[in-house]
Amino acid sequence: MRARWLGCFALLCAVSLCVGAGRMPWQQLATFSGDAWLTLTASRLPRLAALVMTGAGLSVCGVILQHIVRNKFVEPGTTGGLDAAKLGILVSLVALPAAGTAGRMLFALVFCLLASLLYVAIIRRIQFRNTVLVPVVGLMYGSVLSALAEFYAYRHNILQSMQGWLLGDFSRIVQGRYEILYIILPVVLLAYVYAHRFTVLGMGEEVASNLGLGYGATAAVGLLLVAVTVSATVIAVGAIPFVGLVVPQWVAMRRGDNLHRTLPLVALGGASLLLACDIVGRLLIHPFEVPIGLTAGAVGGVAFLGMVLRRAR
């Protein structure tokens, strides 16, 4: 099974390298110079790396949040994390206009972490009879944060700057404008190191405490990993919803909830899903392209509704 998944992933990577606005003269690559080599190394390879890291990171974020909240319908897009990161970036643009990418990411990280902590506190306080209500509360919470971000942008005349983070878009990715995404690699590795702890976390606070796990500390580590990934992603490529919802759910249905066993598949599935969405977006109106925020949102939205309807039966 894993060989088939790896084969599918490799095929998607190859197709992603071949698809572009212009025709690639592959025969020129043998000289390691010229326009073809420049296009490959400055544009297509960075875009491929950004897609793989973003997809893997967002899907791992989704599965961590699902174990912390103990609900299969949550991910950064349904817990207000993406909207909080956008608000943090807007605040950084006003408070510290000279701040670089790292400074803006720090603001986004703090806002995303605080918003996630508040969301978890709200969910723990409310006793839900229907699990579907948990992401509904998250979507409402995200709408409030999004409204605050738009109002803040309107008040400071930076609505135009905000447009870049409304929709995920990889068309701006070139060499020198995506390297911050490499911070996702240690996040994924740390998530794998903590995989057993997150699995126990998903069994509930009482079980986790009885097994000697520090529930609060482990949940805080998970939320911090999520905040780092979401802030880096929003800074580099914008908001991409539902990747962390679809893939973990699909893997859990086939392989169960033991994260030490399934986390590599979750990361691989997230990267593959984002590659497929990007390829579709680049081919739909070729040589132009549809932002990946739209294609991923459409695929994820349909899958989300399907899962809600399935759970409601």
UniProtKB/TrEMBL annotation:
Q: Does the keyword Transmembrane apply?
A: yes
Give the Pfam families listed for this entry.
FecCD
The Gene Ontology CC terms held by the record are:
plasma membrane
Query: Cross-referenced InterPro entries, in alphabetical order?
Result: ABC_BtuC-like (IPR037294), ABC_transptr_permease_BtuC (IPR000522)
The principal localisation class reads membrane
Q: Which domain of life is it from?
A: Bacteria
Q: So where does this one cross the membrane?
A: 45-69, 105-123, 132-154, 174-195, 265-285, 291-309
Q: Which cellular compartments is it found in?
A: Cell membrane
Q: Which GO terms describe its molecular function?
A: transmembrane transporter activity
Membrane topology reported for the UniProt record? Multi-pass membrane protein
SUPFAM superfamilies the UniProt entry points to = ABC transporter involved in vitamin B12 uptake, BtuC
User: Which GO biological-process labels does this protein carry?
Assistant: siderophore-iron import into cell
Q: Which UniProt keywords apply?
A: Cell membrane, Membrane, Transmembrane, Transmembrane helix, Transport
Name the family.
Answer: Belongs to the binding-protein-dependent transport system permease family. FecCD subfamily.
Q: What is this protein called?
A: Iron chelate uptake ABC transporter family permease subunit
- Which organism is this entry from? Diaphorobacter ruginosibacter
